[in-house]
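To illustrate the input format used throughout this study, we show a single complete record. The first block contains the structure-token representation of the backbone; no residue identities are included at this stage. The design step must infer an amino acid for every position from geometry alone.
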């Protein structure tokens, strides 16, 4: 990531998935300070702007990273309402943490990036998107080589069946995903919502997340991996 701005105090738009976690990692690598995490809990999985599966467990990730989290619930899946909620979070973050900008994990969504940029301009904040237009395969290779351990928590694309739910993605799995993406035409980094992920360990964490109880749901085309119970494993660093 080329640093477009001098080192800043940032709020991170955080969903618990690989993209938002890695964007924090890159921002910190380039000298920015992450003051807080901002998580909007969407009303349902029909949201076009927000990540839904297992977002309630971001509280464990926040604790493991030692970064405070501000959350709010959206009462509608309409992007306008979700952006209103996000604006409230940003106003609070400016007041409580004196943030100068945000960092988010957008890769290809012009819709998402435009909405965030408009909101930041309104609030006099900078917007950083360190993953923007990264090559999907190289990005995932970098994730894995940087010791990001993440699982797939939802699938909704041809070629991705229930066997992927809850699976940790390493080099072997990436090779298979690449073959499937070429055959079925889905985006390898899941930017189009073809799948969602959840980070269980990475260099940002003091302790990994241990999933104690889970449930798979599969309707023949789409599926979700629900984390029912989880905790930080303080026996592993």
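Output of the design step:
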């Amino acid at each position: 990531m080329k640093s477009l701005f001098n080192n800043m105090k940032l709020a991170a738009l955080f969903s618990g998935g690989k993209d938002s976690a890695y964007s924090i990692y890159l921002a910190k690598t380039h000298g920015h300070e992450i003051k807080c995490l901002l998580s909007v809990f969407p009303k349902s999985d029909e949201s076009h702007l927000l990540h839904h599966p297992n977002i309630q467990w971001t509280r464990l990730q926040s604790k493991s990273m030692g970064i405070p989290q501000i959350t709010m619930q959206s009462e509608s899946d309409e992007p306008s309402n979700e952006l209103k909620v996000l604006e409230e979070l940003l106003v609070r973050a400016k007041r409580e943490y004196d943030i100068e900008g945000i960092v988010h994990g957008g890769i290809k969504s012009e819709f998402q990036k435009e909405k965030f940029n408009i909101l930041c301009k309104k609030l006099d904040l900078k917007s950083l998107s360190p993953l923007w237009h990264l090559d999907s395969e190289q990005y995932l290779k970098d994730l894995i080589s940087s010791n990001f351990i993440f699982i797939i928590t939802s699938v909704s694309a041809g070629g991705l069946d229930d066997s992927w739910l809850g699976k940790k993605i390493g080099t072997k799995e990436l090779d298979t995903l690449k073959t499937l993406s070429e055959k079925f035409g889905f985006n390898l980094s899941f930017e189009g919502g073809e799948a969602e992920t959840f980070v269980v360990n990475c260099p940002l964490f003091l302790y990994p997340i241990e999933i104690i109880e889970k449930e798979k749901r599969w309707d023949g085309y789409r599926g979700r991996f629900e984390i029912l119970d989880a905790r930080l494993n303080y026996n592993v660093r």
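Structural context for interpreting the output: The longest helix spans residues 79-97. The radius of gyration is 17 Å.
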